[in-house]
What does this fold into?
Amino acid sequence: MTNVFQIPSSGEADFSKGSIFFIGTATVILRYAGFTILTDPNFLHAGDHVHLGYGLTSERLTEPAIDIEQLPPLDLCVLSHYHGDHFDRIAEERLDKNLPIITTNHAKAELESKDFKRATGLDTWEKAEFTKGSARLTISSMPGQHGPGIVDFALPPVMGSVLDFETENGSRTLRLYISGDTLIHDDLQKIPERYPEVDLGLFHLGGTRIMGVMLTMDDEQGVEAIKLINPKTAIPIHYNDYDVFKSPLEDFKRAAEQAGLTEKIVYLAHGETYDFEIPANRWQKASA
It folds into this structure.
């Protein structure tokens, strides 16, 4: 089933270029084709703690690049799962309760209990479709596994996402993958089979460990995921923000260099922007 939504537009969509602004943790602002999209909103400051369940907490070590009051007008939010370092108490209190949020069914129920009125929960491979002017965006839920084996059942369900941007005639101009907090597992193999030719990938790293159990990809798994999804450009995020992140970005950089992936990886610090351009022959043909 596909959920369909329409967003008011004030002008023509620009398919020629876009940007990724990295706020911190897994929080970015994606601007493309007239859409402004927020991911996994986390605006706590250094020294603040998040609750991870079962009495466990984690301290934030970094500052977000901006505060939540500095966000631009948003069209929607993509939320990988309902955990305190992905949807924190600041987002619960201050994010617009009418903002469309695409997420898991578990997170949808939690958000509705906090008075968010436009959360949409997706099962794996299910889609939500947005139109804005001449642009169409399809968000598809991807497989994710937050913990190994039976540990995963004790954690909030997580999803990755594929965002496909198309012109009104149905021609795709950009395909973007967001891993979510996942480990490498068998179901990820199905993603490149169903969604090949990824232009841009955002990969949640950090090697999160709680009581010795790894819950997000470390350097080795991050390299494996990039090889598997094979985006033209990959951006690591979620790598240094909390004290439970045990795999430094420097380890990933070394692993990526050894794997021959350096040329396709863009590294962003908090507050930095990656500006990208779509080849003219693609978007001009798509808009024809």
The mean pLDDT is 93.
